[in-house]
Design a protein that fits this description.
With 163 residues, the protein is mainly alpha-helical. The protein is built from 7 helices and 3 strands. Strands 1-3-2 form a 3-stranded antiparallel β-sheet. Helix 2 crosses helix 6, helix 4 crosses helix 5 and helix 6 crosses helix 7.
Length: 163
Amino acid sequence: MVKRLTNPLRERPIPLGSLLSAAGQRLSAELDASLREAGFTDLRASHAPVFMAIDVDGTRATDLAQRSAMSKQAMGELIRYLSGGGYVTVAADPDDGRAKRVTLTERGWAAVDLGERILSEYDAWLAAAVGADQVARLRETLYRIVGAPPRGLRGPGQDAGSG
């Protein structure tokens, strides 16, 4: 075994993925705390995909999964949990009896309204902390990163053209 004198990773800046994860975890923690303070003790930031993807008149469960980039099974678990908490109802889709339509209840809409307020407050805090134009640039950059095609993974010593 070769003894190393340095670890090259210790010399690098913190990876962007780690920073992005930490920022996301901070927002999730703040959202969770605000939900608890408002009395929604059974809701977490992890439930947000349903609230963010649902239409006013309800949405098919499969469409919620697709919009949220989640598996149908994972979305189904979220829907069952939220249904049990009284946030959504699930019924046969009137346009296709084989499909399930998920609709927000009054309690669900109250959670949406609170979530909107919390996110607006967080965005305002972020703009005050680092500047509105920095936030706008960051948002634009993150959209570009998320929308970029996968780069593909290459092993050591392989260039993009070899496989």
